[in-house]
Amino acid sequence: MRVLRRDPLARILALACLGLALAVGLGTFARRPVAPRVVRPPITVSVSGEVVRPGSYEVEFGARVEELLRLAGGFLPTAARALVQLAAPLTDGQAVVVPALAAPGGSARVSLNSADAAQLETLPGVGPATSRRIIEHRPYARVDDLLRVPGIGPKKLERLRPLVTL
C-alpha cells in the first residue's frame, strides 16, 4: 500500500489491472443471445369412422392421436379402441380411421403390416415374442409370408389366416 501512495506509475498500473480484470469479468457474465423460437404452423388432420364428430381438425404441430380424438368428441361405443394407437404423432394431411368392433359372428381382421404388438397379441397363439418377430419380418405381400416368422408353422398359419389381413 505504501508503494501505491508514493509512486504514481504504480497507481496507474494498479488501476489498469483492475480495469482489465473488471472488463474480462463483465464480458464473461454478459448475456448470451437467446436462440430464436421456432414457430410451427398448425397442421390439419382428419378423423373418420367410429368417432362422435368425424371431420378435419387443426391441431398443433407434434399433437398425438389422443388429442385429435378428444377434439372429435371421443369414441363411439362401437369403436375398436384397442386398434387405435393413441400415442402416435400426427402429421399434416394425415387421415386417422377408427375401426368398428366386429359384428357378432363376424371378425375384425388384424393387419400384418400395420398392427402394433398389442393388436397382434390378440390373435390366438401370438404372444409378445411372436408379435415382435411378426413386426421384424415386415412387410408382407401375402399371408403365407408368415411362414418366414420363427414360431409360426403351417398349423398356426391356418389358425391365423381368417383373422389377419395385409
What does this structure look like?
This protein folds into three domains: 1-31; 43-98; 110-165, DNA polymerase, domain 1 (Orthogonal Bundle). Helix content is 33%, strand content 12%. By secondary structure, it is α/β, with parallel strands linked by helices. The chain has helices at residues 2-6, 8-29, 65-71, 117-120, 128-136, 154-160; strands spanning 43-49, 55-59, 95-98, 110-111, 164-165. Strand 1 (43-49) and strand 2 (55-59) form a beta hairpin. The N and C termini lie far apart (90 Å). The longest helix has 22 residues, at 8-29. The relative contact order is 0.10. The strands form two sheets. It has a three-stranded mixed beta sheet with strand order 2-1-3, covered by helices on one side. The protein has a two-stranded parallel ribbon with strand order 4-5.
